[in-house]
């Protein structure tokens, strides 16, 4: 006999012994000591292994095991260690150890705060699977998961985790300034000029912002602080004539040069030229040296034109005591009414010592 035939015969003998071992382990019952109703032995001729090969032997062995299992359920002893060892050696352990009890590997899609990845796990629950994937879920903080954490993972599931959080942010709010117009004769009619620039008001609010998966879902105002106050813009709108503008540009009149500049600007409205202006300069220099506060201690004459009584200048303005322009305005009107021109008044003063 060749080596190939001998190998088959050896395998057949091993399986035959296996069948006998299984059967002999069940030959008695605990109650009566009688032999089992099933055959005590399984005799397989050598020709069977030669003709049917390994398949026939395995079939006989498994049949014996199945019969033994039925007898065990009826109160007979379970498989002995020799039979179990024989099954292990022949690769048949799954029939008795319950392979379903082993950990199962599943793959699933994990989406955390919008970022997706594929994960493979052998964890018993979704909670364990997430921990294994390095994902922390805090229900107290408002985190949410799309599957129950205590359930077993299932193949092909998409698990979505949304982390909740809070941050503090500040936001500025602008209050636009307004515009106020103010009329003035220091500008020509219709001309405009900004006197006071406008400033927008700014307030700063601090918020507690709630987010889910990094996206804002709500906010709560905590405090508001005024950063700057609103200031309205002031725009000057001109109503003045050229003379008014010239006077305004001459200054306040409290210096000699400023007072003379005001007088020169006003002369134009009377049609008087440079010659009349020279006479006026001489006349009022004699009277008051162009001092708007000059007062004659004897007569009470007052101001640049030395009005007597002083109160007559009130016809030109209530501020006659303090405003050089008001005094000059009254004085030119007086000269025109009384003498017709500054040079005529100057001539009278030279002749009489007064005008």
TrEMBL record:
Keywords in alphabetical order, please: Signal
Matching entries from Pfam families are given as: G5 (PF07501)
InterPro entries in alphabetical order: G5_dom, Lysozyme-like_dom_sf
Q: What is this protein called?
A: G5 domain-containing protein
Q: Which SMART domains match?
A: G5
Q: Which residues form the G5 domain?
A: 161-241
